[in-house]
Amino acid sequence: MLNHHKEDTIESVLKEKRIIHPPSTFSANARIKSFQDYEKLYQESISDSENFWGNLAEKELHWFNKWDRVLEWDPPHAKWFLNGKLNITYNCIDRHLTSSRRNKPAIVWEGEPGDSRTLTYEELHVEVCKFANVLKQLKVTKGDCVAIYMPMIPEAIIAMLACARIGSVHTVIFGGFSAESLKDRLKDSQAKILVTADGGFRKDKIISLKSQVDIALKNNSSIVEKVVVVKRTSESIAMEHGRDYWLHDLQQDISDNCPPEIMDSEDALFILYTSGSTGKPKGVVHTIGGYSLYTHITTKWIFDIQDTDTYWCTADIGWITGHSYGVYGPLSNGATSLFYEGVPRPSNPGCFWDIIERYKVNIFYTAPTAIRSFIKMGDDIPKKFNLSSLRLLGTVGEPINPEVWMWYYEIIGNEKCPIVDTWWQTETGGVMITSLPGAISSKPGSASLPFPGIVPDIVDKNGDNVPDNTGGLLIIKNPWPSMLRNIHGDRQRFEENYWNSLSKKSDEHIYFSGDSARRDSDGYFWILGRTDDVMNISGHRLGSMELESALVSHQAVNEASVVGKPHEIKGEDIYAFVTLNNGFEATNELISELKQHVVQEIGAIARPGTIQFTRELPKTRSGKIVRRFLRQIAANQNIKGDRSTIVNPDILDELKEQAQLHN
Ligand code: 6R9
């Protein structure tokens, strides 16, 4: 199987002609049942978009006070549902308590060691209120930032909702990040409180989160005031007097009554950090009203969740997918959302299929990198399990190779489940381009068509349209409810990075995604990848600059340039070219040391696959490293393109020759 997908190149994607239609039984019961229905909805959404979003907001959400205006668009600054008052936790929890959903599981959770927990909507309400009261007791008030650095356990979700309940702003920091990354994000967000756990279980090991916290906070009394620690692994950990508190101690005798804070539609809900093309991660800010509506309606129409469904999104809550389609979207729809602490591992390669069988999961949403690793493990593993409960599959995070799509369709979906390939970003808050499972036929490898209300386009770097089937920059032409509102503390970066990137037509204020794509003659979008120096490693965004800074912070490294190299499971792998300081020798030991150093600086997801030492890097006259050539070398391709811009062209052949040793 993998042999096929290795050959997936842009050319083979261009040749992809298969079309898979929604099964008629699926369409008959779906919310959006036909292509005509989609087209009608799309037309309505575009011809009077404020009316479209206003009607949905009124119908789908509970507001304490209705808004005065749907949209104020002062490009690139948008305000949605002006003066509307709401609380996302009221929509995600309280409103379900007056119906039969009260006793329905909201969260079904399984730990890696096999322990499990179910929280009904009523129980979730109690837990969120108790946690919210703990935060209040710690003097967290509206607008304060609370950081969450947790394994995938129910308390992580409860903590997010507790923040939203009292109007504080959460920033979830992926539990796989190192102390250094944690520290940077805590500083930038100015979080007052940090919620963490003694540890978590991952790949049969204990991840000691609290010790990372201790390193991050060491000699840094100005970062967070207090740390709330959830007991998960019961490992012995250090607790600093006056700073660290066990959650169970704080919760003794705490009230379970905590009315939701009345929030303005444009108050911040969360900050989530993501990599950009500079060394400093961007704190993407989302606000309550627009995000509530957009995650609600995309979940409802794309995943077509019905009240009897069990839905599972495998993303960690440290990423936007976990926020929008693990927590907020499903709960707002009153769904049962499943969470799993662990990941497939050699001791339990079939754990995902086992969970699908045991919990009778109906809707399953995961990433291409995971699917590729399942293919590699062999069809025998999923075939041992009963996957017949599944009725819909989804994918997100990176382009899915057509052959990988077909495997997912045939082996996991048994050719009866539609697949939604959903294109979106941390910045967009929710899915922008996707098929709708009952209405839009899929072409394997294409994210399909825009969601209602979204107007994507493909342009060149001047902002001019490119013909169909030609690659170009993927842009969005209109504002949408869950668009990012800011980069935390850096309005200028927000404006320049996303809205002023096209030289000629910057006055048009179109949203620049940083991805390239092509549109075919049926209007389907095919995402080709990033156009900036951001890599996509197993569906996680990592900026070249962040990695380079991490490498250069090692005493042996003089200069580093990092590019992505195609990888059969991860999509891309990290390939670093490094020059050394005098007195350091290029040894295998140093390679291992540098890899470990990057893990320490950023986290395990950033471990470079290859480090190649060199005496020089290819540079322009103005001293800029030319990554384009380095990408070709890393990919083991012939060097193509104009070398005349480089001052030291000879280095290219030398690098190429040495690269053979690494490939
Ligand atoms: C949701 C999420 C965003 C970047 C995005 C693009 C890539 C996401 C994709 C996809 C092709 C899809 N991406 N979904 N590429 N097809 N269905 O992943 O957010 O972590 O911010 O990453 O991921 O390159 O620009 P985020």
From TrEMBL:
- Residues reported to bind CoA: 202-205, 321, 538
Q: Which GO terms describe its molecular function?
A: acetate-CoA ligase activity; AMP binding; ATP binding; metal ion binding
Q: Which reaction does it catalyse?
A: acetate + ATP + CoA = acetyl-CoA + AMP + diphosphate
The record's Gene Ontology cellular component field reads: cytosol
Top-level taxon: Bacteria
Pfam name, any one: ACAS_N
Acetyl-coenzyme A synthetase N-terminal domain residues are 38-92
Residues given in the record as Mg(2+) binding sites: 552, 554, 557
Instruction: Give a GO biological-process term.
Output: acetyl-CoA biosynthetic process from acetate
Annotated Gene3D superfamilies: 3.30.300.30, N-terminal domain of ligase-like
Q: Which UniProt keywords apply?
A: Acetylation, ATP-binding, Ligase, Magnesium, Metal-binding, Nucleotide-binding
Q: Which SUPFAM superfamilies match?
A: Acetyl-CoA synthetase-like
**AMP-binding enzyme C-terminal domain ranges (all copies):** 546-624
> Which coenzyme or cofactor does it need?
Mg(2+)
What EC number(s) would the UniProt record show?
Answer: 6.2.1.1
Q: Which residues bind ATP?
A: 397-399, 421-426, 515, 530, 541
Where N6-acetyllysine occurs, residue numbers? 624
What does the entry report about post-translational modification of this chain?
A: Acetylated. Deacetylation by the SIR2-homolog deacetylase activates the enzyme.
Q: Which residues form the AMP-dependent synthetase/ligase domain?
A: 101-480
Which class of enzymes does this protein belong to?
A: ligase
Q: What does this protein do?
A: Catalyzes the conversion of acetate into acetyl-CoA (AcCoA), an essential intermediate at the junction of anabolic and catabolic pathways. AcsA undergoes a two-step reaction. In the first half reaction, AcsA combines acetate with ATP to form acetyl-adenylate (AcAMP) intermediate. In the second half reaction, it can then transfer the acetyl group from AcAMP to the sulfhydryl group of CoA, forming the product AcCoA.
Which PANTHER family does its entry note? ACETYL-COENZYME A SYNTHETASE, ACETYL-COENZYME A SYNTHETASE 1
Question: HAMAP family of this UniProt entry?
Answer: Ac_CoA_synth
This protein is called Acetyl-coenzyme A synthetase
